[in-house]
């Protein structure tokens, strides 16, 4: 079964990070990716640009509406995701607990509606 981890953080928590802090953060995530790959559960990941660079589009009501910024103005923003393939939600939660984002923000776990391969 495929699960997607949506990684949420408060951008204010990242505002004081130095280039060295960012490098250390990349290394922590690299180790996590390596562990997922070694376990044979890794499918995909991406680190998203900051929320201020978002554009939201809607055709609701038949009219094209384009908004600069995210869909919702919230304190925590979506910063990236992981897709893994594991047997069940319990296994997904074990990997979510190991995700570095769980220590500084939140990891939303969503099962794929299309299943796994």
Automatic annotation (TrEMBL):
Residues 1-110 form the YCII-related domain. Gene3D superfamilies: Dimeric alpha+beta barrel. InterPro entries: Dimeric_a/b-barrel, YCII. SUPFAM superfamilies: Dimeric alpha+beta barrel. Pfam families: YCII. Belongs to the YciI family. PANTHER family: BLL7171 PROTEIN, BLL7171 PROTEIN-RELATED. This is YCII-related domain protein. It comes from Roseibium album. The lineage of its organism: Bacteria, Pseudomonadati, Pseudomonadota, Alphaproteobacteria, Hyphomicrobiales.
